[in-house]
């Protein structure tokens, strides 16, 4: 609120949008390492119940804080609003999010050095990567799309089909085989709410020949199942599959 005081200088860092609230905190702390006291242990900070309040600039009034009880807090509606409405029309740089990190006063005094000693902006090394990406002017490759689509996803609380207990597991999509005619559908809209959609304007670059999908094909043999699938049943391959 109005009782807080801004200290230090603004800094930039690159954070994965799929990150959890805890991972976002750790990324921010790593980026501002030079502002932390020398005897601070980063591993202890992640386990001591540190909970920074992350307020999004330009978000939805009354809902501007990133929630800490969802898997991907950077996909909430207040973030979409800030990304689409915070920049003026003359801006041509990469889309970015402005966040104010609110510290508890006692915790700040225990971890952060005196704000008056900080007069140089802190720029994380990931900013150079963001600059390089911005040179593409809102472009992505088809391989970037595939990497995101086939990325391994961690499920926090899923029911195991064997023991019927809730377990932490991972889910990963793969292709069984690729046909002669392979149709790719690109999503052009993101559902930001039940009644509002945001159009994606990213230009997708794709090869006109030589598309290699081998990295996304499911392996034909698994060392965990000794070549068998479906709880020990023999593995049956598709009869129309060609090498």
Automatic annotation (TrEMBL):
It comes from Medioppia subpectinata. It is an enzyme of class 3 (hydrolase). It holds the Pfam family UCH. It catalyses: Thiol-dependent hydrolysis of ester, thioester, amide, peptide and isopeptide bonds formed by the C-terminal Gly of ubiquitin (a 76-residue protein attached to proteins as an intracellular targeting signal). One of its GO terms (molecular function) is cysteine-type deubiquitinase activity. This is ubiquitinyl hydrolase 1. Gene3D superfamilies: Cysteine proteinases. Residues 132-226 form the Peptidase C19 ubiquitin carboxyl-terminal hydrolase domain. GO terms for biological process: protein deubiquitination. Its EC number is 3.4.19.12.
């Amino acid at each position: 609120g109005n009782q807080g005081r801004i200290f230090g200088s603004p800094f930039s860092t690159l954070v994965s949008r799929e990150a959890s609230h805890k991972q976002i905190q750790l990324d921010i702390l790593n980026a501002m390492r030079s502002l932390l006291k020398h005897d601070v242990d980063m591993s202890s900070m992640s386990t001591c119940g540190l909970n920074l309040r992350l307020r999004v600039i330009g978000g939805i009034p009354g809902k501007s804080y990133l929630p800490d009880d969802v898997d991907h807090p950077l996909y909430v509606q207040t973030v979409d609003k800030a990304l689409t409405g915070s920049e003026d029309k003359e801006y041509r740089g990469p889309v970015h999010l402005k966040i104010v990190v609110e510290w508890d006063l006692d915790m700040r005094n225990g971890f952060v050095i005196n704000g008056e000693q900080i007069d140089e902006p802190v720029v994380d090394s990931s900013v150079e990567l963001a600059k390089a990406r911005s040179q593409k002017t809102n472009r992505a490759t088809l391989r970037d799309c595939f990497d995101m689509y086939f990325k391994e996803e961690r499920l926090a609380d899923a029911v195991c089909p064997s023991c019927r207990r809730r377990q932490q597991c991972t889910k990963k999509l793969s292709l069984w085989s690729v046909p002669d005619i392979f149709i790719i559908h690109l999503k052009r809209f993101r559902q930001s709410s039940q009644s509002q959609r945001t159009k994606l304007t990213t230009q997708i670059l794709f090869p006109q020949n030589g598309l290699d999908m081998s990295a996304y094909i499911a392996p034909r043999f698994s060392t965990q199942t000794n070549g068998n699938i479906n709880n020990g049943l023999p593995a049956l391959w598709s009869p129309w599959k060609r090498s």
